[in-house]
Specification:
Elements lengths: L1 H26 L3 E9 L4 H12 L3 H9 L3 E8 H14 L1 E5 L1
Antiparallel strand pairs: 1-2, 1-3
GO molecular function: mRNA binding; structural constituent of ribosome
Keywords: Ribonucleoprotein, Ribosomal protein
Organism: Ramalina farinacea
């Protein structure tokens, strides 16, 4: 009978460990995606110039990029760098999300 009582206990312990391992992984997000959501119309030239410098696009491509907002700007950006970019764009009149 000892084998029957120890058998069900082992799978129950394994089930308890899985959620504990999944929770820290969700909290440790280190890389983010930056998305240009919108911008003030009066700030459009400044936003285009910043996008051109940031992404290395031509002036024409930067203009098309900004006009097609909302559009993803960068992927895999560290949180500190992403926050700096969000603040810089906010200062120019753009709305950028850090997801």
């Amino acid at each position: 009978m000892g084998n029957f009582s120890s058998g069900p206990a082992a799978p129950a312990a394994a089930v308890v460990e899985e959620p504990e391992e999944a929770a820290p992984a969700a909290q440790e997000k280190t890389l983010f995606t930056l998305t240009l959501k919108s911008f003030e119309t009066a700030s459009k030239p400044k936003i285009i110039k910043e996008i051109k410098n940031m992404l290395g696009l031509s002036l024409v491509d930067s203009k098309k990029f900004v006009e097609s907002a909302p559009k993803m700007m960068k992927e895999g950006v560290p949180k500190e760098e992403g926050e700096k970019i969000v603040e810089a764009m906010k200062g120019l009149g753009g709305v950028v999300s850090l997801d």
